[in-house]
Amino acid sequence: MKEITGGICAAKGFKANGIHCGIRKNKTKRDLSLITSDVKAAAAAVYTTNLVKGAPLTVTKAHIADGYAQAVICNSGNANTCNANGIEIAEQMSELVEKAIGISKDDVVIASTGVIGQVLDITPIANGMDELAAGLGDHSDFAAEGIMTTDTVKKEIAVSFEIDGVECKIGGIAKGSGMIHPNMATMLVFITTDVAIAPELLQKALSTDIASTFNMVSVDGDTSTNDMVTVLANGMAGNSIIDKEDETFAQFCKALNSVTVYLCRKIAGDGEGATKLLECKVTGAADEKTAKTVAKSVICSSLLKAAMFGADANWGRVLCAIGYSGADVDVNKIDVSFESSKGRLDVCVNGAGIDFSEEKAKEILLEKEIDILVELNSGEATATAWGCDLTYDYVKINGDYRT
């Protein structure tokens, strides 16, 4: 497996584009994206667990109920959520795709992100469709820009790998900076692949993967309303179709995981106002559930996130987060360390503090990527969670986000 360029256009048969259609006041920001496949593709998706769900999710569920789709359209700057005519707007977006490029409206995935509860006008989307469709091509970067809200960087990745000697490719783009919190889904992620795989196995691969990837990301504790992860697999690589859980299925799952882990890290590191990517690695847990519970609790701790912003090795906040996590652990066995490109520092052994250099701690914690290592010494299970520091700018961004 190797990383390649191309993002969502790396796999055979996929095109994309992103434009500014006028939803956003800032004309330099793209606000409408389209992804298409040359042929109908197997489709799978997972959705936000928030009871308040955007209309596009409802429409998308209906459109891919047969296991197939051929296009994705997404607007940013104004979320189609809590709107009386939300379903109508989502259906109109898919109808515009059908009119512009001939793909059936029933084979369109619809997504929307931005301010919640603000009426979404279909007019700029309709006016921009001809330009959007005409520009379809190798433009994963344009599509990645078109789905961004408070994101500061584009998030895209692609890898190539082999299945039975056939080269296959898988790529993805994502948006996510605020309102990021487990469980699935708390961002927008679009993944494309030219692998031939049965829809039910594609769904199983995605549903299984998110348990240890997107469900382990947290920025601020808020679970969004509109977000989902979608995978389209058009089979154009030419491999024998994956229709059972064998070695080829495992190879596909590994490739999918390489894409999702990369996007998880990019989303966490680009949290609103963030200056650091935090990765909590839990080892020695009695079982996977315990490991995940501990990792999530640590990464979600506002006090720990603030300490990481200040490069303060306040390891007691790690133990505190473990203690209220609800996980059944022996606190007298826990070891904690901090690690970055500047080295590793042990700060707690068997649940008690040990002497360490505050100067070395500061050096380690001033880096852009910090690993929080938790050893439970109670088993063999492991888990990883991703988050970011909590800064002054998070409040600034969200204090006037709408106005």
Keywords:
nine-stranded mixed sheet; Ubiquitin-like (UB roll); about 400 residues; 11 helices; 15 strands; alpha+beta; L-amino peptidase D-ALA esterase/amidase; six-stranded mixed sheet
Number of domains: 2
Secondary-structure element pattern, one letter each:
EEEHEHEHHEEEHEHEHHHEEEHEEH
* Gyration radius from CA atoms, angstroms: 22 Å
Roughly how much helix do the residues carry, as a percent range?
25-40%
Q: Segments where pLDDT lies below 50 for 5+ residues?
A: 182-186
- CA(first)-CA(last) distance: 45 Å
Main sheet: strands, sense, barrel:
9 strands, mixed
Task: Average the pLDDT over all residues and give the rounded result.
Answer: 92
Please state the second-level CATH architecture of the largest domain: 4-Layer Sandwich
Say how many strands there are: 15
Structural class: alpha+beta
Can you lay out the helices and strands and say which pair or pack?
Elements: E1 2-4, E2 14-19, E3 32-47, H1 55-63, E4 68-75, H2 86-101, E5 108-112, H3 123-134, H4 140-146, E6 155-163, E7 166-175, E8 188-193, H5 199-210, E9 228-233, H6 247-269, E10 277-285, H7 288-300, H8 302-309, H9 316-323, E11 335-340, E12 343-349, E13 352-353, H10 358-365, E14 369-375, E15 381-388, H11 392-399
Parallel strand pairs: 4-5, 8-9, 10-14
Antiparallel strand pairs: 1-6, 2-3, 3-4, 3-9, 6-7, 7-8, 10-15, 11-12, 11-14, 12-13
Helix pairs in contact: 1-2, 2-3, 5-6, 7-9
